[in-house]
């Protein structure tokens, strides 16, 4: 049939059909003159391909053996494990791989099933596609490092001793979450919780050096290292050492009140001298709450001229805000919003005892309203020694808004999120008292995360299965904490 198109003739072709030479059904013509069903019955392109494979698995470190000696850490049904399984197949180069996917099996069955799709050219150039199932038998076998640890748990080469001389463990809780998020302690063969810190043990010195480098990027530290001779072979002139890295974390923590030494204040552009620590990373962020001036101090600068805190978060006092008079509008200082204001406050503990009222200046003018509660340092009643000439010490310095009243409404209800912690050995004699103290400090750390969502962005929060959202949560969202359950449900 001829069709006229744009003044020219175009011949319309029709696809012919023939009978299959095997079963005789009507089908489109192909080079083999056979239908797909008969072609698959005649030719099996998966013949000679592996259908069963044995793989070695280390149950201690969750890794698989890539012959001859490489161990790969993979999770079940992950892309890495699928790639590993496909690479273990031999003679796969004879066909063309089209797709691969896992077939679900019970995790305890020690069987991994993968569906493989392949293509191959057969019988006069006809391309046939076929899928087949490969079963991987998982056999447990400890890797070299895990077998050494099982034989002798104290067989370590390098240890990193993290220490911070402060009366709380908030820094270590936060550092632990950063280590888990970035998998920084992947090669640690043992982790032990000590009185003022954590000890990490490694089977390789390079792993310990890498870990110390990671800690130095997330908090200001100073470190020193030493080595001890374990054995010496005179014939081969080889030496075996054990390495110890002593890492001290800066004792300055978030929300601490600091009175800068004169030389330090001068080097920071006459900052303060009464300043607040607002953030600790690889540097220390110091804010003057009376002028909103901020300066950063790197680790080397701090350790050249170290100083201690004047008052720590353990000494915070609760105040009630009576009146607020804003001075300036909100300004952004170091990525955080502040606003100066003159406020009238009174200590909650003074109610019913005296009528003592303090008129102070604060950097929290954008958050506080009359009737709110705030936490701050009581310089009026504190026993402190400041030798600055001409320095007028305020009666109080507010640190943050208090959400305790709102927490009382949610008491007993689980949070929508939770944290995971490292598996650490604890060596303490008074275990019961230590457990109670640890649970109290963990709860305080969770409250800090609720009040500071910017800190929660740096760590991994996991869904809490025990959490059940309430119908009143959305309606009462304005009264919840900054990191509210409504925003995480």
Automatic annotation (TrEMBL):
* Disordered: annotated span: 462-489
An annotated Gene Ontology molecular function: ribosomal large subunit binding
Q: Name one GO biological process term.
A: protein transport
Per UniProt, subcellular location reads as:
Cytoplasm; Nucleus
Q: Name one GO cellular component term.
A: cytoplasm
Taking every annotated instance into account, which residue ranges of this chain make up the domain Nmd3 N-terminal?
20-249
According to the lineage, what is the superkingdom? Eukaryota
Q: Which residues form the 60S ribosomal export protein NMD3 SH3 domain?
A: 252-297
Q: Cite the entry's keywords alphabetically.
A: Cytoplasm, Nucleus, Protein transport, Transport
Q: 60S ribosomal export protein NMD3 OB-fold domain: from which residue to which, for each copy?
A: 316-401
User: Where mainly located?
Assistant: cytoplasm
Q: Which residues cross the membrane?
A: none
The record, for PANTHER family, names: 60S RIBOSOMAL EXPORT PROTEIN NMD3, NONSENSE-MEDIATED MRNA DECAY PROTEIN 3
Please give the function described in this protein's UniProt entry. Answer: Acts as an adapter for the XPO1/CRM1-mediated export of the 60S ribosomal subunit.
UniProt lists the family membership as follows: Belongs to the NMD3 family.
Q: What protein am I looking at?
A: 60S ribosomal export protein NMD3
Q: Which organism is it from?
A: Papaver somniferum
């Amino acid at each position: 049939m001829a069709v006229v198109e744009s003044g020219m003739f175009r011949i319309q072709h029709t696809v012919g059909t023939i009978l299959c030479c095997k079963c005789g059904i009507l089908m489109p013509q192909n080079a083999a003159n056979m239908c797909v069903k008969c072609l698959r019955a005649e030719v099996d392109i998966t013949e000679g391909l592996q259908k069963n494979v044995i793989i070695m698995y280390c149950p201690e470190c969750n890794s698989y053996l890539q012959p001859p000696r490489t161990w790969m850490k993979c999770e079940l049904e992950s892309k890495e494990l699928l790639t590993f399984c496909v690479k273990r197949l031999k003679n796969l180069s004879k066909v063309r791989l089209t797709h691969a996917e896992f077939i679900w099996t019970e995790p305890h069955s020690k069987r991994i099933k993968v569906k493989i799709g392949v293509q191959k050219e057969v019988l006069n150039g006809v391309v046939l596609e076929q899928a087949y199932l490969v079963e991987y038998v998982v056999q447990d076998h400890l890797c070299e490092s895990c077998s050494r640890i099982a034989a002798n748990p104290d067989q370590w080469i390098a240890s990193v001793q993290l220490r911070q001389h402060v009366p709380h463990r908030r820094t270590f809780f936060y550092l632990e979450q950063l280590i888990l998020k970035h998998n920084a302690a992947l090669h640690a063969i043992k982790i032990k919780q000590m009185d003022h810190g954590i000890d990490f043990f490694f089977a390789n010195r390079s792993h310990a050096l890498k870990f110390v480098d990671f800690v130095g990027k997330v908090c200001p530290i100073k470190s020193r290292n030493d080595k001890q001779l374990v054995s010496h072979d005179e014939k081969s002139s080889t030496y075996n050492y054990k390495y110890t890295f002593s890492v001290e974390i800066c004792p300055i923590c978030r929300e601490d009140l600091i009175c800068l030494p004169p030389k330090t204040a001068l080097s920071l552009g006459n900052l303060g001298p009464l300043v607040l620590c607002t953030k600790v990373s690889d540097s220390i962020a110091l804010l003057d709450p009376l002028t909103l001036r901020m300066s950063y101090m790197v680790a080397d600068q701090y350790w050249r001229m170290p100083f201690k805190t004047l008052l720590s978060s353990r000494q915070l006092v609760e105040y009630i805000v009576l009146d607020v008079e804003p001075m300036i509008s909100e300004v952004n200082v170091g990525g955080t919003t502040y606003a100066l204001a003159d406020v009238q406050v009174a200590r909650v503990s003074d109610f019913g005892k005296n009528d003592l009222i303090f008129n102070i200046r604060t950097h929290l003018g954008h958050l506080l309203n009359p009737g709110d509660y705030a936490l701050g340092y009581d310089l009026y009643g504190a026993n402190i020694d400041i030798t600055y000439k001409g320095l007028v010490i305020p009666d109080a310095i507010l640190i943050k808004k208090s959400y305790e009243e709102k927490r009382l409404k949610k008491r007993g209800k689980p949070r929508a999120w939770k944290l995971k912690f490292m598996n650490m050995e604890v060596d303490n004699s008074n275990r019961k008292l230590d457990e109670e103290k640890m649970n109290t400090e963990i709860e305080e750390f969770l409250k800090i995360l609720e009040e500071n969502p910017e800190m929660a962005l740096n760590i991994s929060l996991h869904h809490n299965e025990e959490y059940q959202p309430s119908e009143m949560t959305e309606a009462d969202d304005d009264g919840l904490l900054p990191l509210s359950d409504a925003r995480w449900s």
